[in-house]
Automatic annotation (TrEMBL):
NCBIfam families: stp1. The lineage of its organism: Bacteria, Pseudomonadati, Pseudomonadota, Alphaproteobacteria, Sphingomonadales. This is TIGR03087 family PEP-CTERM/XrtA system glycosyltransferase. PANTHER family: GLYCOSYL TRANSFERASE GROUP 1 (PTHR12526:SF600), GLYCOSYLTRANSFERASE (PTHR12526).
Length: 404
């Protein structure tokens, strides 16, 4: 086959947040099998300057800084009648770059990562089109609308409706639409999505996320409960706020020395304020999240709103940590019973306390979690279906770049 154009709403390197972890590994997989041209946005200065790493997996890579505010995007969306999250990624330089790649190379397939980038698919493109929605953004905004009041309820409901229309229109055109879990795919089908829907799950690098791997280790005195994630992401903010205020006090009633570490970059005012509560640690960005996971007595994922598969859960399980998660955070993960699931604050606290009460059971749960990750969630096994979906050269053909 010819070349692949890979469009990403965030540059797939470094893989330091959920969406970038998935896009990074997909880019590596595609780049090992065909020439790939990457066009991506960067909304953080730290995402620039990784040309050497991207060159290992692409034949060309263009990263365009994006700084449009949501206020400007919101005003544009009202004028144009489009979703604000689509307007936020509308950029003249990206349109120009797409045109130049298509004019200068024999592009047989376009891999679109995230619905925001579908606006750059040329109307006359006749090659294979793979749309990786990952999860349903429209459902996320619909959920926001139910929890909001006043103008925000209207804004989120409008965004959800418009994104749903956008998702259906894009899926109708794509050769295949990808979702990260069967739950997301089923929801899309049920809400009128196209029939050409495929599940491509996330995986986990079990060699990197290994409690026995070499990295700096933290010394933890007393029970340490750890949450990891991007801390300017609303579901994560709501999750840690709920745990710190409603669950942790119940845990500390039994274990007064228990501490709750919120590990992740860009904590805003709500999260930073939690650091003033007894037993709560807010780290901000850390050099290596594995150090905190290795030190954790228990990892938690108390998300009330979650879409797709939670990488934070896969990472903690791969590190052989006992994990307690809400049904929303566990949804889509074929965990085989190797994590504890609890829905309300009382049940969640009870599960945490039960694991603290029985260290041997906690160690056994962690060992089972890692075994499940090794068995079920290797990246190569998860992505092998892409060979057919994208029309890739099979490994071993002349065009194979796996040795690069």
């Amino acid at each position: 086959m010819g070349d692949i154009l890979f469009l990403a709403h965030r540059v797939p390197y470094p893989p330091d947040r959920g969406d970038k972890i998935r896009s990074c590994h997909i880019l590596k997989y595609l780049g090992s099998r065909a020439p790939v041209h990457l066009l991506a946005f960067a909304d953080d200065a730290r995402d620039l300057g990784h040309d050497a790493e991207l060159a290992r997996h692409t034949v060309s890579a263009t990263v365009i800084p994006r700084s449009k505010s949501m206020l400007v995007a919101g005003l544009q969306s009202l004028v144009r009648g489009t979703p604000a999250s689509i307007a936020a990624f509308d950029h003249r330089s990206m349109r120009k770059a797409v045109g130049e790649v298509l004019a200068g190379h024999a592009i047989d397939a376009i891999y679109v990562f995230s619905g925001q980038m579908a606006q750059y698919i040329p109307r006359d493109f006749a090659g294979r089109l793979v749309m990786d929605f990952v999860d349903m953004d429209s459902a996320k905004f619909a959920a926001y609308a139910k929890d909001a009041h006043g103008p925000m309820a209207w804004i989120n409901a409008r965004e959800g409706r418009l994104i749903a229309d956008h998702e259906r229109a894009v899926a109708a055109r794509a050769d295949v639409s990808l979702f990260v879990s069967e739950a997301e795919a089923a929801l899309f089908r049920a809400q009128g999505g196209a029939a050409r829907v495929q599940v491509v799950e996330n995986g986990i690098d079990t060699e990197f996320y290994d409690g026995d791997a070499g990295f700096e280790r933290l010394n933890a005195a007393g029970p340490l409960i750890v949450f990891t994630g991007q801390m300017d992401y609303r579901p994560n903010v709501e999750a840690v706020d709920w745990f710190a205020r409603e669950i942790l006090p119940q845990v500390r009633a039994s274990y007064p020395q228990a501490r709750f570490a919120i590990v992740g970059r860009r904590p805003g005012g709500t999260v930073t304020a939690l650091g003033k509560l007894s037993g709560v640690i807010v780290t901000g960005e850390v050099e290596d999240v594995r150090s905190w996971l290795a030190a954790a007595t228990i990892a938690v994922a108390p998300l009330e709103l979650a879409r797709g598969i939670q990488n934070k859960v896969l990472e903690a399980m791969a590190m052989a940590r006992p994990v307690v998660a809400t049904p929303a955070a566990a949804c889509g993960i074929d965990h085989g019973g190797a994590l504890r699931v609890a829905e309300d604050a009382n049940a969640f606290a009870s599960e945490v306390v039960a694991l603290l009460d029985d260290p041997s059971a906690a160690r056994a749960l962690g060992a089972a979690a890692r075994a499940r990750m090794v068995e079920r969630y290797g990246w190569s096994a998860r992505f092998s279906v892409l060979d057919t979906l994208v029309g890739l050269a099979t490994p071993g053909r002349a065009g194979d770049r796996s040795a690069a």
